[in-house]
Design a protein that fits this description.
With 415 residues, the protein is α+β, with helices and mostly antiparallel strands. 20% of the residues lie in helices and 28% in strands. The chain contains five helices and 26 strands. Helix 2 runs antiparallel to helix 3, helix 2 runs parallel beside helix 4 and helix 3 packs antiparallel against helix 4.
Length: 415
Amino acid sequence: MSEPDKKKQRQAPLHLAVKLLGDDDSKFVNDSFSLQVFLQDESANLKTGGADVPLKLSLVFDDQPGNEPQASNGKLLVVEGKGGAVIKNGRAEVKVKVMDVSMNYDNRKFCIVATSAQSLAHIAPGRSHGVTVIKHRLVLAQEGLAAWEADWYKDEGGRDKSIPLHIQLLDAKGRLVRDRSLPLKVTLHYEKTYLSVTNQEYLKLSPDSTMMIENGEAHLRVRIEDVSKNHQGQAFVISVGPDPKEPLDHDVNPAFSDAVTVKSKRNKRHNRKKDSLDVAQGSAHTNIHMQPLDGPSTASIHHGAAAEHTAGAVAGAAAAYAAPSAAAAEGGGEVVVNEVDQSLKTIFKWINKVLTDLPQMRWIEQPATLNPDGTVAMKSQTMPFPNDHIAEIIQIYQSETMISLQVRFVGSEWE
């Protein structure tokens, strides 16, 4: 065997690795971006030293790496700089640009493949991750808007509460694109996977939302009508992109919002150690009407000034059992708060809990809204998630109120 043949056999296998600089998965058309190519051994260690290795760079489809897209006019991939890409001391960095958008190739992603220009058999080619080549990009601008709410309480602030979105259309230089009208579509996704939420009806647009980019901008207001708890606790992201029904607008990259966890309302913790008379007086702030204790036993719940009757009923009952103790105090006697009196306090606190939580479980009327696709969602009714309220009412009854009722029953036998 000749000496050159022995040297060829001693060549250790190497491979090329291609890395596109920049975190995003899209690149602007006819705009330079940098990539790095590394020469590595089988353990992915950098192979330094040795002779320079000239490279050949080519563009392929991400889903079919064996196929190169054919440019309609000139080269599709342009390598900038004199001498092209050359591995020196195990690495090379070069600027390239793609001369056409993915939209003209069935919206497919491109990859850049690096091979040895000398077709060296011991150096395997390398391929970058796939990128979409675009003309313009949508972004969510934060200036002039309130700070983004990572926790958004959908049932606080009324039915008009919404998330404002200021959308801008930018070019490769970050400038507003004022000479292009762009129809928009808004969709709801999960934060970690970016998968679309199956039921897009949870996302509602306010009627005053502008679903078209004009003069480089659009303003939207959206509501998310379901809580994250019903989606395995996942946070949502809102996507604003070109309307997919417009085939010539697929050269625009969509924008994604920051993550938002949707909740119903902030939990209001009740201090169970407060005196029942204080609790009764606080009931005046609820929208509950209860018949006086000497009237019919049926309770009715409604809005308006009837809330005052609630406070009067509960406070009157509390004052009734507190009166003997108060009279004893005025006469100079010792005030003894016995077990029966304590049980009454517990019962009144539970009644107040029921009257406070029941209104939060009412059906809520949903006004007619404009869907992201332009259709109108008819007026409907929804009910907030009631399980937490019900569970807490039952838990307090079983652990405190039931015992207090038994004490009252035993006490009445001694009267």
